[in-house]
């Protein structure tokens, strides 16, 4: 008979963790939803900041919605976080615009957040874009609106990290993303320092304050591990250098709202305005990441559309995005440039990391029979615990004093059952339940 020794298992886990995180798990964070829609818990209207509207002096209560697997459906105590920002040229849109994406990411195992940020750049918030098309009046104000969105994004990030325990977040694995203006904001939030932001907008500090002291007084720090860039851009490619943050990009090659390569933003038809700030789009971002050896993936659609991947190829974009983030979790991120004629192909990343358990000959005191754990009468069990394959505790199983224990069938996948006896010996079994 064979016994799985806990000492051998621990050594193998230590070696494996050098290449992948504890979140590299089968079925989770993949292109296919792990949880039913009814398993998702939604917390709406979470207040994260109080900030002065600009222009003007009115104070806005800034809020976000949080999507996560319900604790009754998911035994994991902590999950990766992704914070998303909607588009709308800093003058329109709201957090509900990307609610479906956040909901679907939660179904795949993430804690997913959609952020409402301050809108308007000396023109009517949520009004017609033509109200903002006067170059001579509004070009400078557009920069302030873009800077202000970064302030709000960072305030939201500080809030989520500060209250990570309340939302079941693993702060070691934080991702961000956005669409259009929201993507521009998140890219700069992930890369800007105050000096770089001041170069972009010399008047912003006087007008609306510093990047990291607006909205709330929290000081929590975090490290962004990856970015989902839907038709976004950066004002200067140099801000990417030294950060080595993997980015997956989605962009139309003829986009005139946010350039695929380089150009002024909002440079379309009647809104043409070379005075609007110049930006470097997803294709140039990909090129700079390639030069620095940072992992990237690039997805292009042909034509003059804007955010076509998000709008017209949603499920492909979703699958590519979550699999890209999972590749970071699993330590196997690779560079990919998509086939532009096959934009709807969806990757398969259901597999997780594999960890071998060394078997040694010994007397077997624990047996598995389906979902039942059979204990030898001499075992004198003191505790029973179930771990995932990276040895992260999922649940403690009550010891009922009998020689037969029913394991919780709500847990899915392959796990490890660890049984401790009163004489301080331990025995583990690999258990799979599908």
Class from helix and strand fractions: alpha/beta
| CATH homologous superfamily title of the largest domain | Alpha/Beta hydrolase fold, catalytic domain
Uncertain residue segments? 1-19, 354-363
What's the CATH first level of the largest domain? Alpha Beta
Report the average pLDDT across residues.
Answer: 86
The CATH topology label of the largest domain is: Rossmann fold
Strand order of the largest sheet: 2-3-5-4-6-7-9-12-13
Query: Helical content, roughly?
Result: 10-25%
**Count of the separate structural domains:** 2
Number of strands: 21
What does this structure look like?
Strand 20 (413-421) and strand 21 form a beta hairpin. The chain folds into two domains: 2-10 and 363-433, Immunoglobulin-like (Sandwich), CATH 2.60.40; 25-337, Alpha/Beta hydrolase fold, catalytic domain (Rossmann fold, 3-Layer(aba) Sandwich). It has helices at residues 6-16, 99-107, 135-162, 164-167, 181-191, 194-200, 204-208, 282-292, 308-312, 314-329; strands at residues 2-4, 40-52, 59-69, 79-85, 111-115, 169-179, 224-230, 233-234, 247-252, 262-264, 278-281, 296-301, 336-337, 359-361, 366-369, 372-375, 381-387, 393-397, 404-406, 413-421, 426-433. The chain starts with a strand and ends with a strand. The chain contains ten helices and 21 strands. It is elongated and about 85 Å long. The longest helix is centred in the middle third of the chain and has 28 residues, at 135-162. The strands form five sheets. The protein has a nine-stranded mixed beta sheet, with helices on both faces. Strands 18-17-20-21 form a four-stranded antiparallel beta sheet, with no helix packed on it. It has 434 residues and is an alpha/beta fold.
């Amino acid at each position: 008979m064979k016994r799985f020794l806990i000492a051998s298992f621990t050594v193998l886990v230590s070696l494996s963790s050098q290449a992948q995180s504890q979140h590299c798990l089968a079925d989770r964070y993949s292109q296919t939803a792990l949880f039913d829609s009814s398993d998702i818990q939604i917390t709406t209207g979470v207040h994260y900041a109080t900030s002065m509207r600009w222009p003007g002096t009115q104070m806005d209560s800034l809020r976000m919605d949080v999507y996560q697997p319900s604790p009754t459906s998911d035994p994991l105590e902590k999950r990766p976080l992704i914070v998303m920002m909607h588009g709308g040229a800093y003058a329109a849109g709201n957090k509900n615009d990307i609610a479906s994406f956040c909901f679907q990411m939660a179904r795949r195992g993430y804690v997913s957040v959609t952020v409402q940020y301050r809108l308007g750049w000396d023109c009517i918030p949520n009004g017609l874009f033509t109200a903002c098309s006067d170059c001579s009046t509004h070009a400078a104000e557009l920069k302030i609106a873009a800077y202000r969105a970064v302030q709000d994004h960072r305030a939201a990030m500080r809030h989520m990290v500060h209250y990570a325990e309340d939302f079941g977040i693993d702060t070691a694995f934080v991702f961000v993303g956005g669409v259009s203006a929201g993507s521009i904001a998140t890219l700069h939030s992930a890369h800007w320092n105050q000096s770089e932001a001041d170069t972009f907008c010399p008047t912003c500090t006087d007008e609306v304050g510093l990047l990291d002291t607006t909205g709330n007084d929290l000081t929590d720090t975090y490290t962004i591990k990856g970015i989902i860039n839907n038709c976004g851009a950066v004002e200067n490619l140099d801000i990417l250098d030294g950060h080595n943050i993997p980015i997956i990009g989605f962009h139309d090659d003829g986009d005139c709202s946010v350039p695929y390569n380089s150009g002024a933003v909002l440079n379309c038809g009647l809104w043409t305005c070379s005075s609007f700030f110049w930006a470097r789009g997803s294709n140039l971002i990909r090129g700079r990441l390639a030069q620095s050896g940072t992992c990237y993936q690039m997805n292009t659609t042909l034509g003059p559309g804007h955010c076509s991947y998000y709008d017209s190829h949603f499920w492909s974009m979703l699958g590519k995005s979550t699999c890209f983030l999972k590749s970071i979790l699993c330590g196997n991120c690779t560079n990919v440039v998509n086939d532009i004629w096959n934009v709807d192909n969806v990757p398969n990343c259901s597999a997780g990391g594999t960890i071998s358990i060394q078997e040694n000959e010994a007397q077997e005191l624990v047996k598995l029979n389906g979902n039942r754990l059979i204990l030898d009468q001499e075992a004198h069990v003191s505790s029973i615990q179930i771990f995932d394959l990276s040895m992260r505790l999922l649940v403690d199983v009550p010891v009922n004093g009998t020689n037969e224990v029913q394991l919780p069938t709500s847990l899915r996948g392959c796990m490890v059952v660890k049984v401790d006896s009163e004489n301080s010996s331990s025995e583990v079994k690999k258990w799979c339940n599908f």
